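Input:
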Amino acid sequence: MTQAALITGITGQDGAYLAQLLLQKGYAVSGLLPRRSSDTLWRLRELGIEGDVNLIGGDVSDLSAVLRAVKESKAAEVYNLAAQSFVGTSWQQPLLTAQVSGVGAANVLESIRLTDPAIRFYQASTSEMFGLIQAEKQDEKTPFYPRSPYGVAKLYAHWMTINYRESFGMHASTGILFNHESPLRGIEFVTRKVTDAVARIKHGQQKELRLGNIDAKRDWGFAGDYVDAMWRMLQQDKGDDYVVATGLTTTVREMCRIAFAHVGLSYKDYVVIDPQFFRPAEVDVLLGNPAKAQRQLGWTAGTSLEQLITMMVDADMRRVGG
Ligand code: NAP
Ligand code: GDD
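Output:
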């Protein structure tokens, strides 16, 4: 029998790659589609799967809409990826971020509990919850210290997932994913902002690149690898919590160097530091320990930062070059 899955956030970076992966595995894939006045299907289109997924209108902050989507999709697995996911915006819209990225997860958990508690659930938790890090390398046991309204909202969703697992015996898992990027990354995130700028500068369409704190360090992997870890979590005998990361950390500065060097330029000639891109509170460094995911899920990050960034620059060179 065909297995059915529901993805909230299906039009986002991870949603698109996860939908592609599940379709390849033979799933019937549904996605929750919030109402937007402009087209948000470009990622599904780029992957050539727009016509292969069943889109169900609804917003994750609306319990009735989520409940309807869970029933209509007949999903045996629900992946909650919907979020206001840009950290910078979460200081300007803290309550919206709480409703979508925090309470949204509770709406999905409640919908599953009311429909069929045997439905398996994945929550998109985040390394942003570690914030002001309490251990040099962060794993599943490291205490959390979120530094943004986004991180705080995600921590609520994280603990609600664990609480539903412990309270109702649900197969509910959290993936504490460290930063992951791709050619489908939103333009506001730093890697894609850089690779898009590199392509525009190389094509003579942009003169400089304005950035904030380029000494921040991140553990960056490829989104295509990370959605496989999500699926593996839901194939386990029971729900659990997993850190998904590369185990390496790199500065934004070094990431810029790699991106510009790929087209024969030096980032030092183009990057301008602009205070408007500094955050009220910064997460200076993130570095994950993915040992549990390796051991229990048989998962490893298969793409180096160099491969990732050059893949993104190449994609943006093609886009900008027309
Ligand atoms: P993304 O590209 O920003 O995608 C977010 C998705 O959520 C989009 O499809 C978006 O639709 C949807 N969404 C936003 N508000 C919604 C609402 N009210 N109702 C229903 N859907 C809504 O994020 P991503 O990079 O794919 O990340 C996927 C998930 O993993 C997010 O929960 C993110 O917080 C989490 N995460 C990401 C990373 C990372 O490095 N990428 C790391 C750890 C955790 P619209 O575009 O129409 O708003
Ligand atoms: N976006 C952005 N723009 N970031 C900049 C800039 C800039 O101009 N200049 C420096 N940075 C720094 C940020 O201050 C941060 O330290 C780092 O680059 C990464 O920023 P983002 O790419 O915006 O990602 P993030 O780490 O804040 O959040 C992402 O990863 C989280 C997992 O750790 C998002 O995908 C979150 O949704 C995710 O949970």
